[in-house]
């Protein structure tokens, strides 16, 4: 099921195959031809179908559920309610902490958000389940809901002390600064909106559970299932070879997952449950809505004296999500005085979750708009403003940057964009009735590091297999791991088969925070190195080897052929050597964990995020960086904004595959365009319910909204960030796009829009 | 299971007979019907597939007029050379509607019959009150999220916007809809909600749209459709305008002008006050802008849709200016 037709993808020239080469995605042909099977496409004997019933109120109690009509509807096998669903155990959170030892029910009596699952119907066919679900009658005792941050009942929320960052005396320094700006910046509730919905197929065989579910974190989700059902971790097998987009949303086993797995256990039949599109807007959290105020004081030369930052994000009544809003604010610019604090406010929503660059993304919107406002206040070029306040070291951690090619990014981006030709005055550039604006903003994302594990097998026929329970949701794991193994071993890339997405493979932590490539290339590099050592060792020391008796102390493998370094003796293919020494396979498991790691620590490393390594560990502060230059055209009558040009220069360190890195950057930039201009979950304030939970009404950019995007890599290998010198790629691209657009809109129109998205009514 | 029976009609007569059955609904391209069935809004007892009826997809265009069969696909009409040259507003309205995939499936008859995008209308499970769906149940939209709702032709019963594009161009160009026994002006075919929000069209049980007829005219030849929305494509109009213009020999004075609005009214909205104000006038930007404001007489907003009152006249003005410039 993970077999790709590598030969097609790898038909480019040999140089493409090495790490750093522009090899096309090896999983591309399988996806294009339909050979790649996604989770919901599994055909299982006796498969049944579950459909969820969601609460129609945002707060209150379920007082009664009438299931009679649904139970007698054709094809119905079971109607599950909080009373009838089997009892599960409360699972630990992603730090590994168990909030309670009590029972857990994924169907609720106490409703805390609209759409929360209160019942489920399982039937022989999907249509029968849908029809019967509509027959389930639910009565509620409704209570007033807090619908969002602007709700009068919401209050100021509670402080999250861990988010406080302070040095110097920010308040006094701000008050004393000769030039000051202070403004509030808001981002709405946004959704990951992956094309592939959430859902799963769950099958029990005795006490063993197999789950086909799109997953960014097989080991973490397997742990959750094991804890819910109180079975050993090894009894759960999660299978997720292909994922139709995650963007942060597919890292956890969620309530709907529990419903399907419980139903399968109760009915002793496999159950398929796929969330409807509207349910994808209420069954798991998107990006929390945020509010920030940014106050900056500067001297008359534009040098920042103080930054005072306050942030708020919404979270759920029964769950905690902190969107770290001071993350970019505290490191982007040098300032002697700084204060950032954050509150969270509980509202009646599903718990918000991770969406591409959680924290950094809204944080950059605040500080990168504010710095632009300050530049206009001072009459300085916004790019100049950023260079004047360039942070030569991490102002918060007070450590040297591992690498920071941001100055280079500004220079390369400005040059390619033609920034020098910008006319400084707002509303000074136009074409007919289109006002033209240019904006710039910077972005950053920390290098999140963790440990990983991989198995590399050299087979008798000379081919190579790489196995890992990490995943590829389109970012290119299959491809770069094939490149890594091919280069390390010295074989053509088409001889390498990468198998991912099965929790029974060698373990991996979460794919999130742009950490996977750095972690897994390191693990594969190490495992392949071990396999290579064993191969060479056999070649030199096995009496049956044609190299035995040569005086060489090592052998070289190039393009799948083995020879001594100085060329004396024979040249063999790997298969010939394997056959000569009578080996079926060489297998090596490599991991990047310290040798002293205990089994418990290993388990915690792969199934929680508690063990990830801080980006400021040791002597360095590690981040990727970028600068976006954007041109917008705003119709002066209609207020419609179109992005007409984007040039972004990015520092992700060494690129393992520039083609894939560019795709990811561009994907992030496109998502940023959507965030700036279109995306917003719109809530009916009377019902606390999102009313645009579908792809016709939740606006995402179309091809017609996206201009040519030029990306420029300005990174250099960063040995402090990863084994092979790369830094994060996937999240970086989106950070800074929305402020660059907002800044360009100001330059075009003279109007500062501080509430995303910048829709037309805000400009007419 | 929501069972329904499926009938394939081989002729218009068969379709008419079947359409008279209670709970019967026609299926043409299916892009509205299946969508609404999925939302739980459409629950037909019988689905009558008319998509195989021969001869209903003809597109016949001369300088005198266009005759477009009800089963002609949106994409075919949009791309038709004579439609483009003799009725540009019609082609432009279609090109800017929906997506390429939808236009390849959807028919002209079905297009006229598309339903509102009011989110409350489309979600019966969560919002039982909707006069359009369940007469007398109330209106969930009033007091709720109204950014897309209408400002013209609204009533206390319903403020839902008519979402389509084509019909706006047809109303501007005095097109007629052929129902077999009857022929109606497209403008009269659409009904404002008044107290009966459920009645959107003047169509009776057993009637089938067979064709659209658009009279040829100088104003039709110099016509355009401008659609404004946040997203560049695949979004319904925040406001749109179809305008046809005929100038006197001097190239400045208006002999004939037709103006209709979309995205802001409960039905495709003819703006006669704007037409009257401009007929006989020499075109200049100030005159055009001033006259365009007249389209908003009687407009009522519900908060979030207030912007439409400012936006719509600007869309009209832009369309007239564009046509004037090509003089
Ligand atoms: C996501 C989305 C976006 C869209 N965006 C736009 C847009 O921007 N602009 C726009 O104008 N439209 C838009 N549409 C609407 C689209 O144009 C219509 O769905 C389409 O034109 C309907 O045509 P159809 O042939 O598929 O109709 P069907 O779905 O087959 O039928 C629709 C209705 O018309 C009735 N009907 C069909 N044919 C006849 C007939 N000959 N006589 C009498 N009744 C008939 C049917 O019974 C049914 O009630 C959008 C639709 C979707 C789903
Ligand atoms: S505006 Fe009309 S369609 Fe929308 S809820 Fe009210 S009555 Fe129903």
Could you name the key traits of this structure?
heterodimer; A: 764 residues; alpha+beta; Aldehyde Oxidoreductase, domain 4; 3 domains; 7-stranded mixed beta sheet; 6-stranded mixed beta sheet; 16 helices; 34 strands; globular; B: 327 residues; Uridine Diphospho-n-acetylenolpyruvylglucosamine Reductase, domain 2; Enolase-like, domain 1; 2 domains; 13 helices; 18% strand; binds flavin-adenine dinucleotide; binds iron/sulfur cluster
Helix-strand category of chain B: alpha+beta
Strand percent estimate of chain A:
15-25%
Count of DSSP-assigned helices of chain A: 16
Largest interface: A-B, 41 and 31 residues
The gross shape of chain B turns out to be: globular
Fourth CATH level, the homologous superfamily of the largest domain in chain A: Aldehyde oxidase/xanthine dehydrogenase, molybdopterin binding domain
In total, the number of domains of chain B comes to 2
**DSSP E strands of chain A, number:** 34
The tally of domains of chain A stands at 3
Question: Shape of chain A, please?
Answer: globular
Give structural notes.
The complex is a heterodimer of chains A (764) and B (327). Chain A is an alpha+beta fold. Chain A has 16 helices and 34 strands. In chain A, β23 (464-467), α11 and β24 form a beta-alpha-beta unit. Chain A starts with 5 loop residues before the first helix and ends in a 15-residue tail after the last helix. The model of chain A is unreliable at 1-14 (pLDDT under 50). With 327 residues, chain B is α+β, with helices and mostly antiparallel strands. Chain B has 2 domains: 5-49, Uridine Diphospho-n-acetylenolpyruvylglucosamine Reductase, domain 2 (2-Layer Sandwich); 59-113 and 163-215 and 222-325, Enolase-like, domain 1 (2-Layer Sandwich). Chain B contains 13 helices and 12 strands. Chain B has a 5-stranded antiparallel beta sheet with strand order 4-5-8-6-7. Chain B has a 4-stranded antiparallel beta sheet with strand order 9-10-11-12, sandwiched between helices. The A-B interface holds A 56, 73-75, 114, 127-128, 131, 134, 278, 433, 635, 637-640, 642, 677-678, 682-687, 689, 691-692, 696-697, 699, 701-705, 757, 759-761, 764 and B 1-2, 40, 117, 119-120, 123, 125-127, 143-145, 147, 228-235, 238, 306-307, 310-311, 314-315, 317-318. Bound molecules: flavin-adenine dinucleotide (FAD) and iron/sulfur cluster.
